[in-house]
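Cross-check.
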Amino acid sequence: MHVTTTPSSSAFASTFAAVDLGATSGRVIVGRVGRDNLDLTEMHRFPNTPVRLPDGLRWDVLALFQGILDGLREAARSGGVASVGIDSWAVDYGLLDADGSLLGHPFHYRDSRTDGAAARVHSRVAPKELYYITGLQHLPFNTLFQLAAGEGTAQQNAARTLLLIPDLLIHWLTGTVGAEETNASTTGLFDARTGTWSTDLLHRLALTPGLFPPLRAPGDPAGILLPHVATYTGLDPRTPVTTVASHDTASAVVAVPATEPDFAYISCGTWSLAGLELDAPVLSEESRAANFTNERGIDGTIRYLRNIMGMWLLEECRRTWQTENLPAHLSTLLADAARAEPFISLVDPDAPEFLAPGNMPARIRDYCARTGQRIPGSQGAIVRCILESLALAHRRVLRQAAELAGRNINRIHLVGGGSRNDLLCQLTADATGLPVIAGPTEATALGNILVQARAAGLVGDLAGMRRLVAATQHLRHYTPRGDSAAWDAAATRIDSAPRIP
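Predicted model, tokenized:
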């Protein structure tokens, strides 16, 4: 039940709305921030369901915007907010024409149109040089590859402005145009050293510099609500929209409850983003070969990490099992997995056959058969395979990150939806041999709200924000159980497994 009483002016000043968009759902969350409290209330949740059109897989961005408006209306009914901030996934974008109108629904990053686009880019800019400029992990759906796939199309030829998803939604709320820098750093068109758009890359890739708006930093004002938005939602027409760390991982890292140095983080949801927070990018050839990314965090920090195909594998299994009328309740599957025999089979979570939607259990069984492993026969065995494989991927990536950056790791903070998964958290502690602190689950929304609160003068620096999270949010601790030899053997087995063509 939502609170409907009108708060005092001081309470209003400490209340913020976070629009947090994920790959399968969006929500509007209200956060109340005080010296010793940080409370969240979910106002509205809505599905994020892609639509397959004749020309490819698209995001239903109009439905997302309507969900945002409805959520902000609920926030207004609960008493109003001091500002609004938006975060979402990275790399995807909308194109506006000369009149500022959207040219079609944005493509989904899992659409196959980017097949072969990387080769087109690399014929103009060699991979080593591209990494030296951008520091970005090679993923087939990075924005520059999507743009290469759309080169010469009527839609792209008519485009005058490119807006990443959060920036597009801010444009519809406020009428303003900008590009938030943590998300811009995921495009492959952003200079990792200077923190600006790379005009050299834009020129060499035949992209018009004017297509890319001026950059904004987290905490910058993004505008106030348009009159029709204020009327529909019931919010004060002077309500500002604040630029937050609009890449959801960047917001999640803000809320990592680290109070000591030498920590690593895993932001675990559809993807597992595992890495370190650095002061400067690592642009070595060794870093490129290991496919690490240097993305922007708040206050000029660098998110040095790798994307790992995360809980997507499990969620796609559950979706398939639901369509087959098999048990798909998460708690039951995890209980079965906990009882399953360990290390029956292992997969590389980042194998390309796991990227697209489809029958994930069949693909996992096929992977195991082709690599000469025992085929997991039960649902619990498949879930065990997924979670052990993810834990091994966490281990591998964090050890590589520490070596490449010349850093030590004493503990791991695992935040996001995956932090609710006790078995995954324990397996990650076991695999890495490091203590795991799990939580907060709502790290992305918390980071979104904390940046807004700092812009309003209510919280201090990044360390102060993290201390507030650590003091107010429920955290769980997992200690390695000491079976390091079994994990070493499993790591050797997966590393030496034959590569699937």
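Residues 142 and 373 are 33 Å apart (CA to CA). The radius of gyration is 22 Å. Passed to J.P. for a second look.
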